[in-house]
Specification:
Number of domains: 2
Strand content: 25-35%
Distance between the termini: 31 Å
Helix content: 10-25%
CATH architecture of the largest domain: Ribbon
Order of helices and strands: HHHEEEEHHEEEEEEE
Radius of gyration: 24 Å
CATH class of the largest domain: Mainly Beta
Shape: elongated
Strand order of the largest sheet: 5-6-11-7-8-9-10
Largest sheet: 7 strands, antiparallel
Length: about 210
């Protein structure tokens, strides 16, 4: 279900405020809180809410406080992104299974960021050149989605900037005794790279791989 085209800007704002408040706090705003946020009277908010309920965009339990919820399946304009793709079921890579169309959506943005977080603020994408990470299923030409961070754990795949100015994609290991860093490729054709902590800067953690055909 998408937003009906006859909603006013104020009604869209009310729906957005209700959605965002439930995501951030776990409960809905009161009529008074909506009025204060919109800088209108409580009566005006009540009228908009009643109109939204009649249009099927909003639901409310009259016997409960903070019970305003968006109608199931309702999508606001800021949720209608090109990153939402139809997810129509599952397919086996081993034995065949019955083809079942289970109409859902796969939101690429939601895969890589928590709700209400600007994906661009916490991630970046790099295109891979070379095959040193092929055994981690990261091939030449793939795109790696990376979370911006400078601290990682042993065994994680990272984007590392060396003091030579070169950047590399490798698995990260820190030796507990010496403190030295080992950047381990995932391809037996390549040797690991050993560096001192002051010779490396971690720029990101790989959280996803995108491949096109």
């Amino acid at each position: 279900m998408s937003v009906t085209p006859n909603l006013t800007p104020k009604q869209l704002k009310i729906l957005t405020l209700i959605r965002d408040t439930r995501l951030s706090r776990g409960y809905s705003p009161t009529m008074q809180e909506l009025a204060e946020e919109l800088n209108v009277s409580k009566v005006t908010v009540f009228e908009h809410v009643e109109a939204l309920i009649k249009k099927g965009a909003l639901q409310r339990d009259p016997n409960k406080a903070r019970s305003l919820v968006l109608a199931p399946g309702l999508q606001l304009p800021d949720e209608q992104r090109n990153t939402r793709l139809p997810l129509v079921g599952a397919i086996a890579a081993g034995s065949p299974i019955d083809a079942v169309e289970d109409r859902q959506h796969l939101d690429l943005e939601a895969l890589f960021a928590p709700p209400n977080v600007n994906l661009a603020a916490i991630t970046f994408v790099l295109q891979v050149r070379g095959d040193s990470m092929i055994n981690e299923h990261i091939a030449d030409g793939d795109y790696v989605v990376c979370e911006k961070r400078d601290t990682v754990r042993n065994g994680q795949t990272v984007v590392a900037l060396l003091d030579t100015g070169e950047a590399t994609l490798k698995k990260f290991y820190r030796d507990a005794k010496t403190g030295r860093i080992r950047l381990q490729p995932a391809n037996e054709k390549y040797e690991p790279l050993f560096v001192e902590p002051d010779q490396i800067q971690i720029q990101g953690l790989v959280i996803g791989v995108i491949r096109t055909y």
